[in-house]
Amino acid sequence: MSGHRRSAVSRTRILVRRVHLWLGLSLGLLFAVLGLTGSALVFYTGIDAALHPVVEAKPGDVPPGLASPAWDRALATGRARWRHPGDKWTLEVTGEGGPIPARYYPASGHGHHTDRMMVWFSPDGTRIVRAEPWGGYLMSWLYQLHMALLAGDLGGQVVGWSGVAMLVLLVSGIAAWWPRGSWRKALAFKRDAAPIRRLRDLHKLSGLWSMALLFVLVATGVLLALPAVTQALLAPATIPAPKSAGGGDHQIAIVEALYTAHRALPDGRIVFIDIPGAGDAPIRVRLQVPGDPHRRFPGSYVFIDQFSGLVLAVHDVRRAGTGTAVASWIRTLHDGTVGGVATRILAVLIGFVPTILLTTGILHWLRRRKAARTV
């Protein structure tokens, strides 16, 4: 290599290291917070149930079947508590025993989480055993912190675009480390070296061994936080938005809607049912069909006229194109559910890595500054 080319390479490496340093110093704390909150949220429903035993399933509890009157009882109990005719409800079909989880959306709310009340009904649907506003208890507060820094849509944009910068941070770290000589030495941890070298090795190895998984978690987080970017990159099929026919004055029973949805997608597993209030919105049933990777938030829907009970539209992810199929993997890769309990535990552990990188990186930088001042 000529002297001129060697000098250009050296200048490039110095620039990359500076980019990595300043991105790390400016984004490191946010990266650590998102990592730690993400770790806590991997098992957030289980942790929340442990913190609030009233919603835990008891041994021997049997989940209500699709024909159980408990669903309509629960809706009636909820509407008796919150009486506004325009309010919307979502009931979750967990397939497990214990209280029935639900979400209550006042008609005045705007946005997915605005003025949202989390409600748990007794297994027979006759009582409300717990009701708390979204964001008003620990796990939902952590969720809002992780997704939007407690700052709504603006916070979600900050998280998303900061995630793009974090991807640059990860790539610049690899580029700054890339060995020019022995790979064995570049991958070694020198236990007998000076403290500043051990900090550097710990920082380096923590990043290297977690790099692939960190990149996946950050990239999928960006796509979740920036749906417009996901739409532009993947172009998933648009979910239908049909309307119920006008003139009806009596909403069909939930059990009828569940039966209709099951008949429309007989191999689907029903997960949520959205019940609208006054107006022409349809009943929306969300299902997991074979091949859809996410058990709790799948991507197939059946839309049912809330008055006549007729199927208005079906959105089946298996027939929605490649972009939809790819998009269906984003959440399950991000929350670690892709491989069951083992990958969820791995996701918890990876969430601690940004804190390790921040701590070792700052300590190494401070030691270097101190050493430079003493020269």
Automatic annotation (TrEMBL):
<feature type="transmembrane region" description="Helical">
    <location>
        <begin position="345"/>
        <end position="366"/>
    </location>
</feature>
<feature type="transmembrane region" description="Helical">
    <location>
        <begin position="158"/>
        <end position="178"/>
    </location>
</feature>
<keyword id="KW-0812">Transmembrane</keyword>
<keyword id="KW-0472">Membrane</keyword>
<keyword id="KW-1133">Transmembrane helix</keyword>
<dbReference type="InterPro" id="IPR005625">
    <property type="entry name" value="PepSY-ass_TM"/>
</dbReference>
<protein>
    <recommendedName>
        <fullName>PepSY domain-containing protein</fullName>
    </recommendedName>
</protein>
<feature type="transmembrane region" description="Helical">
    <location>
        <begin position="207"/>
        <end position="226"/>
    </location>
</feature>
<dbReference type="Pfam" id="PF03929">
    <property type="entry name" value="PepSY_TM"/>
</dbReference>
<feature type="transmembrane region" description="Helical">
    <location>
        <begin position="21"/>
        <end position="44"/>
    </location>
</feature>
